[in-house]
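Complex record, three chains
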Amino acid sequence: MDRNMCNSQQEVDVRKGPWTMEEDLILINYIANHGEGVWNSLARSAGLKRTGKSCRLRWLNYLRPDVRRGNITAEEQLIIMELHAKWGNRWSKIAKHLPGRTDNEIKNYWRTRIQKHIKQADQNGTSTTAQICNSNISDHNHMIIKYHDQASTSHMCSSCPPPPHNQPFDQTTYSPPTYPGNLDNLQAISFPADQSNDNMWSMEDIWSVQMLNAE
DNA sequence: AAGCAGATCAACCGCTCCACC
DNA sequence: AGGTGGAGCGGTTGATCTGCT
């Protein structure tokens, strides 16, 4: 009984849900002064009513200064698809090849954009392998992806140059994006350009306040 | 303008792995 | 060798946004 009360009291003390700007600032300031460390004790020391896990996630996915916000570019999209073909849902591994992108972001992107189109295409046609053709990388408006019937013809579109990998993607070990069976049947899909995602407060806001606090 | 449905994404949850004792 | 705690990962949820009627 007492234990239950104690637990529920602890649960009340742990905040969940969206982070406030104040919490963000506390976390940023603390890490700026003390560095990343043991997250549970960091959360306690910083005076945040959050779990270490929550702090870690917030820092890695949002607050780190090197996190890139905004649209996934066509180049990044290609890399994601290639590496997903290679490794499957190893999001953190894929994220390592996309500097500034987080595993969470890539995972969400895959599930909400790419997988959706694959499912839709699944209902339309048949094919077993993928061919990726970046139709208009320069304006980043649309990207066409084609899946062909023959495994042997799975390769980058011959009329297109290889993707301009400016990331540490290892082209020497590059293998064509042959998709596993459950990704069959995609014939041609196009993605509209991403919308910019405005947050309640921008990272520029946070970092400008952080600079002021640091002075 | 209001209501609804689908899309998006931040955050949480549960699990596994690994290092340390 | 086994236990424990922290870190990291992938899956899922739920709030919010957006576009359509």
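Note: The domain at 74-190 of chain A is CATH 1.10.10.60 (Arc Repressor Mutant, subunit A).
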